[in-house]
Amino acid sequence: xxHIRLRRKACISALFVGIMFLVLxxxxxxxxxxxxxxxxxxxxxxxxxxxxxSKHVEPFKSGEVSQEITIKIVAAILVIxxxxxxxxxxxxxxxxxxxxxEKFPIIVSQDCGHEETARVIAGYGKKVHSIKHPDLSDxxxxxxxxxxxxxFKLSRHYKWALTxxxxxxxxxxxxxxxxxxxxxxxxxxxxxxxxxxxxxxxTLWCVSAWNDNGKKENVRGNDLLYRSDFFLGLGWMLxxxxxxxxxxxxxxxxxxxxxxxxxxxxxxxxxRPEIPRVATFGKTGVSKxxxxxxxxxxxxxxxxxxxFSKANLTFxxxxxxxxxxxxxxxxxxxxxxxxxxxxxxxPAPAVRVQYETEETFVSLxxxxxxxxxxxxxxxxxxxxxxxxxxxxNTRVYLAPPRNWKGYKFEK
Length: 411
Prior knowledge:
The protein is of the alpha/beta class. It contains eleven helices and 18 strands. The chain has an eight-stranded mixed sheet, sandwiched between helices. A three-stranded antiparallel sheet has the order 1-2-3.
């Protein structure tokens, strides 16, 4: 009996020692896993176009085993550059706010062969991946159309640059930024949080950082996101699947207007913010500063970081978004444009101003100081015909009648 008791005690002691060993081993593993820092090896591996990147990491404590961590590439940033040395302002803004190099590799594609701009880009070394459009040939257009050749060259450059990023480098997602844009502090946060929505909802085909009505007096709430039927071409994200759809029929010029046509849009929408996550400083360019003096220079760039990754953004999926959006718009009290000068205050969070025709919309938009033009039958920033904005500290929905039948476009 004494021998049995001794053996039992020995077994219990051995079991206790084993448990303590496993606990200590687990704590050591947790320490090794969490207390690491990424080594700055200066590797250019993030430009190979893979969906993930492995990085060498080192423990804080000397003598411990080095490890590898895998980081998912969210999207490559494709900067479209030409003859603007001020691309430095764009790149500085991107590098200042980029959270992690491996998540958002930067490609700068330069057209035009402008030497001063090329030197500026080269000065960033391995911080960016520089490529140059090989076709610098002139484009001959008849008569007065020769003034438009810049639009033809830009469209040619876009097609080549997107081919390099998607087909050669094999990235899955691209965010296009032109060289006259600077980005908001939460630019990358915004795109990382919305990227998965392009996969979940086939009725979405892009995410944009822009709002054409993004002047200070027209916006409120840096957490607000919308669906938009209007394609926005300033700071936008697309997937490889969309590129494969567009590539065979890419236009010779005016690529952004072409994107707005029903044949390309196919009733799909973009996500856009209330307060823009990009702003342009390009007073001159292919468009010769069109709208800059009276409009673009007043667009508000968001200056306060919003943690979109912590928010549930599935409300932007069409099946959830549409019923609530339609209900919100059409439960809002209907007022005329004279209401805003009447001194009355409507006891409601928003009001609705109705238009019946394009001519009516243009007239009301001018009175309410928002963009008044249409492209391919769609008012700027509209979703289901509705444009949302602030006017005199009131949320306004400029909307068609409740029985709206859809957009009409005649070539």
